[in-house]
Write a structure and sequence with these properties.
2 copies of one chain form a homodimer.
Chain A lengths: L6 E4 L3 H12 L6 E3 L3 H11 L2 E3 L11 E4 L3 H11 L5 E4 L16 E6 L16 E5 L2 H14 L3 E3 L2 H31 L8 H13 L9 H4 L2 H10 L4 H30 L1
Chain lengths: 270, 270
């Protein structure tokens, strides 16, 4: 069974940074980190006691695993540059199928960390879910052993499911963050501090995961409180875009509540 | 200066429960807790070493403060039943103006805790923002002193601002929770565990408040990644309502990003 001890990394962005540091902390050797951007490669390499390089050919020699952690758009270009090699290779993307990696090697897979990363924000990697896929059971086992060093949360997710997961993540991360930013902007325009609603944002998230968001829904839409909904829409008249968002989400909450009631009734009748 | 040592509470719902327990823990005496529902009144009273009652007339005698913590709809009815009294009285609602309380007494105000409460979920009350308003500086000072016993986060917010705050809270709490529930349902339909995205939900919230949601926006919409957006819309075709939500939020994120760029340009030219 192949054991992964030496890993080269392509990319020095947010995901690459957190992954590289977690690998280093787990005792993995990272001989080279490649980035098109010398400075980014340097910064991350210093943190991981690696060599930085802007010469991609250095990446593919004498190594157990190559991790390609670049934007989806850059992935094809990187693979093109890499040409052919032998080592196991993975990408870290939520939405790109695994098979794209087959152009490089006969041993390939995916190592997708499902989290929102920023270079300058620490997090506990042990809590990050790692989604694994590989083209053979041997490669999958090698990735599993590696992942086990990094996190307590390992999932085996194929390319099809990973795409669904990535879409769910948009609803769980990108869209809520956008709504926070509307709240922030709306407060600012009304000369109220964003600090005021920070505890609410955090508790809403914690409560939803502790119980279940479908059971913790509250608010004027859920209560179908038309008086408050109308007064809110009035207040949002000046903010056209926000009013549209408010209207649709309110309508969706009411519609889905009705739909659920209907389903529950149908199920009871059965 | 009036000092508040004895408080009666009308209501035994989520807000009343957390507030009553926090008051009790702060050494405040709560002679009576009223609820239309005897069982709810009993449960909360036991926790606060109070007497429970379904007779509202017991509430208004020999007391420093009456807290009315009922639903917005029930508030007028409660005030009607209360008639006239002397003690300071407050409600705890985000969207009801303070003046409604004037029917009861010449001393009135609002004590609005900006948080999402559930009876069966503990939280640290010291971290809950309390928004205060009163009809006189003396009453406000009395409320401030009381609030100081309960929390480290006291804000003076008038009825107009409180309404704005309440609307912001819908964007910061109710709507994100709804999006979590879409993610939950979508994962369930695709036989993926909700556990997978729990760390993402929590980190998204923490990151947004630590940095600023306007600076932490990521995702296909923000990158204007049309390829992924289209593939997501394709996947959502079976879920009509979710597709609509995805489409509008994606459009809003793109529109607001363009708007922001335009504003930044205009500001630079000035």
């Amino acid at each position: 069974m192949r054991e992964i001890r030496k890993i080269n990394i392509i990319g020095a962005g947010n995901v690459a940074t957190h992954l590289a540091i977690a690998l280093k902390n787990a005792g993995i050797e990272i001989p080279f980190i490649y980035s098109r951007n010398q400075e980014s490669a340097d910064i991350l390499s210093r943190k991981c006691r690696s060599n930085s390089t802007t010469d991609i050919s250095k990446i593919i020699t004498d190594i157990d695993l190559v991790i390609v952690s670049v934007s989806d758009d850059a992935l094809a270009e990187v693979l093109d540059k890499l040409g052919k090699g032998n080592s196991l290779i993975v990408h870290t993307s939520g939405s790109v199928p695994m098979d794209i990696m087959s152009s490089y090697s006969e041993n390939y897979g995916v190592l997708y960390p499902l989290q929102t990363f920023s270079k300058d924000r620490d997090l506990i990697f042990k809590e990050v879910p790692l989604c694994l896929e590989a083209n053979s059971s041997e490669n999958l086992e090698a990735l599993r052993k590696l992942a086990y060093l990094l996190t307590d949360h390992i999932y085996f997710i194929d390319s099809f499911q990973r795409k669904e997961l990535h879409l769910a993540a948009v609803f769980a991360c990108n869209f809520p963050n956008f709504l926070y930013s509307i709240a922030e902007d709306f407060l600012k325009k009304n000369e109220l501090p964003f600090d005021l609603i920070k505890p609410l944002i955090v508790e809403t998230a914690h409560k939803a995961i502790a119980i279940s968001p479908s059971k913790t829904q509250t608010g004027p839409a859920f209560r179908e409180d038309k008086k408050i909904i109308n007064s809110h829409l009035q207040m949002l008249m000046k903010h056209e875009n926000y009013g549209e968002v408010y209207k649709l989400l309110t309508k969706s909450i009411i519609d889905l509540k009705k739909q659920k009631k209907l389903n529950d009734k149908t199920n009871t009748k059965k």
